[in-house]
Structures are given as C-alpha cells and as structure tokens.
Amino acid sequence: MSELEDIAFKVRQHIIRMSTDGGCFVGASLSATDLIVYLYTKFLNINKDNLDDPNRDYLFLSKGHDVPALYGTFAEIGLMDVERLKNHLSVNDNIYWHPNTKIPGIEFHSGSLGHLPSVALGVALDIKMRGGKNRVVCILGDGELNEGTCWEAVLVANAYKLDNLIFVVDRNQFQANMPTEDLIPLEPLHDKFTAFGAAVKRIDGHSFDALHEAFSAYPFQEGKLNVVIADTVRGKGLPSISARADRWFCNFTHEEIESLLKELAGDQTTQLTSETLVVR
C-alpha cells in the first residue's frame, strides 16, 4: 500500500496549495483524500480513456466541497494536468469550490447537499434495468445525512435491490464549524443504515488495508444497498488544524502554506494567523 500512501501525500500537498488566494474547504478535503485515492486507483473502472464508455463505473461526490481532493487525485492519476491546479478559483478556468461537469471525469455538479444520493441511485437503477455490471459510488458527508433526501435514497435503493450502489460516508464528526453530535446527533449510524435495509461496514477511512478489505467484499449482501461508514479525521495530516471546528474552510497566507507543506512532511507545526470562518 506504499504506492497509495505516496499518492495520498501528493494529493494532500495539492489541497494545501489550493487553500490560499480565496481558500477552500481544506479540512473535509483532507479527511476524504484516502477514500478518493483508493476508489480511483484500486476499485473503480474509471480512467482517461473510458470517460464516455457507458460500461465504466461512476463516482458521485455528493459532499462537493471536498472537490480539492478530487482535483488532486485527478492530477495524480492523469485525468487532469497537474499544472492546471494552479488555476484554482481563477476566472480563466473551471476549477472552483464545487465539482464542475465541464471538467472531464466530473459526473455531476454538487454542492447543495443531499441531492446526489438520489442521482446515484437513478444511475444504478438504470444500470440494473439494462443488465449492466457497472458499479456506482456516492461519497456523502456525515453532516449531509441531516438532509431527509439521503434517507429517502436509502429506502428507494433497497426497494429496488440496488446492490450495485455504494454509499460511502466520510464520518469526520464535523458539520461546518460544529461537531455533528452537538448539532444533530447521528449515532448510532451503523444501526440506522441497517434499519433502513442496507448492508453496512464501518472502517478506518485512513487505512488502505481496511478500505481494501471492505471494498473487496463488494457486494456486501445480494439485493442490498452497500454502505461504508469511513471514520476519518478532519484535517488529516496537519496537526495544527486536525479536528478543529474552526478550521473547516481555510484561506491561508502564502507563508502559512509553505509552513503547512513542511508540517505535512512531519518537519514542524504551524502557527496560524489567518482568520477563521464561523457560520453559527
């Protein structure tokens, strides 16, 4: 798994570099990095040569604010020129805070939370009706599960026995700048998905071995929606912002960026002076 660790490290470097001159949702992007890297490199049949192939697999990033992790992964696997990441938030490009379908490999625009589980199940249902073998993955945020449409999608997916559909929950324990359990408690999350009829696995979302073990068991149970609850750490890789409620969206100074890149490599910690963003 050392190759995956190396790719994930480079993706985290890209995320850090995108968190200046306008900033990005860096904390959640860092928590989702290992999930996205594993899915694109080891599980999904998606590459630069089959993006228009109806037999390809599909990934929908419902928590669209994590798109820096997706951009970074695209750059590392050849779906995007790495130099293009420098255009983040530029008026001359389409790389901004949420996925844009003008970028090859982006299946659907997201950002308004709770919408893409239904889109993903629609694609999975179409595949089932056509007798296809494609796999459909939808990555959700844990705070996103406050949206009732997510649970409607789970009910419908199980009603139609969509075992070709996988919901992956990035369980980093935060929603914006509050812990999920202080806002609207989600636990016991495993039991809730099970009660809605899904086949559920709960894993360490930063362990490539655990990710491989879980996804190698797909489909988890015939005729049931697959759900992976991936326990993650917001801001993974950067102790100075790790699991901090106030560092969900960051617009770092250029000096902080250089320090954070060294921190990611384990060389130092960073004294942050840039402002935090609070919404409630």
Instruction: Examine the secondary-structure arrangement and name the CATH architecture.
Output: 3-Layer(aba) Sandwich
Q: Report the sheet-strand fraction.
A: 5-15%
The dominant shape is globular
CATH class: Alpha Beta
Q: What is the oligomer described by this structure?
A: single chain
CATH homologous superfamily assignment: Thiamin diphosphate (ThDP)-binding fold, Pyr/PP domains
Contiguous low-pLDDT stretches (5 residues minimum) are none
Number of strands: 7
How many domains in all?
1
Total helices: the number is 9
Element pattern in H and E: HHEHHEHEEEHHEHEH
CATH topology: Rossmann fold
- Range of helix content: 25-40%
Helix/sheet category: alpha/beta
What average pLDDT do the residues reach? 93
> Quick one: biggest sheet?
5 strands, parallel
Give the terminus-to-terminus CA distance. 40 Å
Strand order of the largest sheet: 1-2-3-7-6
Radius of gyration: 18 Å
Structural commentary:
The protein is 37% helix and 12% strand. The chain has 280 residues and is α/β, with parallel strands linked by helices. It has a single domain, classed as Rossmann fold (3-Layer(aba) Sandwich). The strands form 2 sheets. A 5-stranded parallel beta sheet has the order 1-2-3-7-6, with helices on both faces. A two-stranded antiparallel sheet has the order 4-5. 44% of the residues are buried. The model has no long low-confidence stretch (mean pLDDT 93).
